[in-house]
Amino acid sequence: MSPAKPPQRTPEQMIDLYWGEPRRARRGPQGSLSVRRVVEAAVAVADAEGLAAVSMRRVAESLGVTTMSLYRYVPGRQELSELMLDHVGEPPDPAALPDGRRPRLAAIAGAMRARYHRHPWMLDVAITGPPMGPNTLGWMEAILATLEETGLSAADGVLVLTVLTGYIRYDSGVELSMAKAESRTGISAEEWGSAYGRVLANVVDDGRFPALSRAVAAGVFSHPSNGAEDFAWGLEFVLDGVDALIASRAPGRPGGAGTGARVAGPDAAAPAGGGRGSPGQRGRGWLPPWGSPFGRGRVPAWPRAGRRRAVT
User: Fold this and answer.
1) What's the pLDDT at 45?
2) Which GO molecular function annotation, any one, does this entry have (predicted)?
3) Closest CA relative to residue 111, chosen from 238, 244, 287, 231
């Protein structure tokens, strides 16, 4: 007998969870319940004990109510975790952001990275659909509004958003995964930094891995990384790419807006011959500001080279 499939949620049902009016209150030993109170209690559990500790029973216990009473407000644990993700994701006040496209994007990126560090469990939430929550859409608005006067098309703007937020999630995931590894193994990031190049030198030979061997010999894997510096360094690469894209779309440039060239977007037809097409053509344009090419939000952890440290 095949296992029963979980009930499917329609987009309308999820929108109602995120945007609907608060459910009618239920009087309990600690006052009225609401979707917000349930979500806040779940966030408190996750912040203290991790996402794995969050269950309908555990949240009900923290609220002093029965487990079944929670189902009047939230259908299940997966929906609850998605609501938690949006709840802790309040975007910055646009008026508080710096002037200028690049400083503004950098400030937004830094604020998003800070969320992951405040709530590391965010990286463990399974993403099952496109963004719908008010806070998540607020982050999208902040990025797209920053790009709006650059001359980029709406499709280009969404793809920039996807790349930028994917980088933030991935980099944060690697850094936080290394921190978790330290608690499990007792080996600190600093110890990894000093040992990684040495142990690689024992297995990387210039016959099988000539380019990697030269990098090991140059000492680029023998320095502990600084998470904040590494993030800022990588962000400069991403923002350089955004600048290059904007320049390439300038009127009069090949492929620019002034040439009549059509920018492929999510609605573009698939390329002839069955090619993969642009990210928009592959249906990736909806990836949310917490989204990742790794699907379920888990990223591999490995020692990162000291990317800002030139070895002479």
Assistant:
1) 98
2) transcription cis-regulatory region binding
3) 231
DSSP 66: -
Q: Which two tokens stand for residue 54?
A: 């969050």
Give this prediction's pTM: 0.75
Residues 135 and 111 sit within 8 Å (Cβ to Cβ): no
CATH no. for 14-87: 1.10.10.60
Is residue 302 within 8 A of residue 174, CB to CB? The reply is yes
> E strands along the chain, which residues?
27-28, 31-32
Dist. CA 236–CA 220, nearest whole Å: 20
Output the six-digit token pair for 188.
């600190």
Sorted by where each begins, the domain ranges of the chain are 14-87, 94-274
Greater pLDDT, 145 or 287: 145
| Helix or strand run (H / E) with residue 86 | helix 77-87
Report domain 94-274's class: mainly alpha
Other Cβ atoms within 10 Å of 131 Cβ, number? 23
